[in-house]
Amino acid sequence: MTDVDEQGRPEPPLAAGEVETLLGFLDFLRATFEWKCAGLDAAGLRATVGVSTMTLGGMLKHLAYVEDHWFSRWLHGHGPRPPWSTVDWDADPDWEWHSAAGDTPEQLRVLWRDTVARSRAQVADALADGGPGRLARRTWADGRAPSLRWMLCHLIEEYARHNGHADLIREAVDGLTGE
After folding, report:
1. Three-point CA angle 134, 153, 138, nearest 5°
2. Pick the CATH number of 20-174 from 1.20.120.450, 2.40.30.10, 3.30.565.10, 1.10.460.10
3. Which of 39, 55, 64, 74 could form a disulfide with 136 if both were Cys (CB 3.0 to 4.6 A apart)?
4. Which superkingdom is the protein from (predicted)?
5. 41-85 residue pLDDT tens
6. Whether the model pTM is above 0.85
7. Quick one: how far is CA 107 from the chain centroid?
8. 67: exposed, middle or buried (C-beta count within 10 Å: 0-12, 13-18, 19+)?
9. CB-based burial, 91-108: b 16+ in 10 Å, e otherwise
10. Do 27 and 160 contact (CB within 8 A), yes or no?
């Protein structure tokens, strides 16, 4: 049974195996990010801090892209799906960040939640087909492929970094503070 904190986030297990610990921390960080974006309207999701152009809406779309990029495209070798398949990435390599301002809060939240749900299923499939050492279907130019273990650690790092950004932006929007 998973303990849940006062914000509704699943606590990572204190004593578990490698996979349960990695997935526990990734789900905790996903829930932290969702909490930081919860209840905000379009203006709140477009707010910036200082000179940065980073927004919570941009982070929702960026993290949806990162989830899809690693777990669908790299891990399973699938081609890009909409909306990523319609983007001229050469013309705008930061499209997910910029285009979020034109999306509604509901569109951003649904995109992120649906992508996370797909990622969970894709990770479960890979765990059943090789465990955390399962190599990605795609490879780097030199032929090496990252393992699922590497990708999970990378996603944990990605969420941890952006949760720090989300803390600052959310506090600037309405004073919400906390982990």
Report:
1. 40
2. 1.20.120.450
3. 74
4. Bacteria
5. 999 999 999 999 999 999 999 999 999 999 999 999 999 999 999
6. yes
7. 16
8. buried
9. eeeebbbeebeebebeeb
10. no
Q: Is 160 left (phi over 0), alpha (psi -120 to 50) or beta?
A: alpha
Hunting for tokens 């349960």 — which residue is that? 20
Domains of the chain, by residue range, sit at 20-174
Q: Could you tell me if 13 and 21 are in contact, meaning their C-beta atoms sit under 8 angstroms apart?
A: yes
Helical spans, DSSP H, in 2-147: 18-37, 42-46, 56-67, 95-99, 105-128
Alpha-carbon distance of 170 to 40, in angstroms, equals: 9
